[in-house]
Specification:
- This protein is mainly β.
- It is about 10% helix and about 45% strand.
- The strands form three sheets. Strands 1, 2, 3, 4, 7 and 10 form a six-stranded antiparallel β-sheet that branches. It has a two-stranded antiparallel ribbon with strand order 5-6.
- Strand 8 and strand 9 form a beta hairpin.
- The longest helix has 5 residues.
- It is globular and about 40 Å long.
């Protein structure tokens, strides 16, 4: 990929609302082995996020973790369940997802810039 391919403007970056979320519930998706159904606390509200991280994380191991989410993403239906945001993760050399986590304890809903 060239250095200019896929480049976005600072205005486009500014439209993405990244927030701290705390995972308060996690369970396997009823219709998909690779998906988890998460309930996250964003400070002023709780939302459901459907995430393809089941191969790397057991639901119980996620409880209480603080993660980074895209909070202003249009809701989407994934395998019959509504997802009201997207968590951020990187793909490791092993092909598995690795959640983006925080340095320190930040309150749910804290804005990331």
């Amino acid at each position: 990929m060239s250095r200019t391919e896929g480049v976005i403007s600072i205005e486009q970056v500014g439209r993405v609302e990244l927030r701290v979320a705390r995972i308060v519930a996690a369970e396997p998706h009823p219709d998909a082995d690779r998906l988890l159904r998460l309930r996250v606390d964003l400070g002023s509200e709780q939302r459901q996020i459907i995430a393809g991280i089941a191969e790397a994380y057991a639901p119980d191991a996620l409880l209480g973790r603080s993660i980074v989410v895209v909070a202003n993403l249009e809701p989407a239906r994934l395998r019959g369940q509504v997802s009201e945001g997207m968590l951020l993760a990187a793909t490791g050399e092993d092909g598995r997802p690795h959640l983006l986590t925080l340095d320190g304890d930040l309150a749910p809903g804290a804005k990331i810039s």
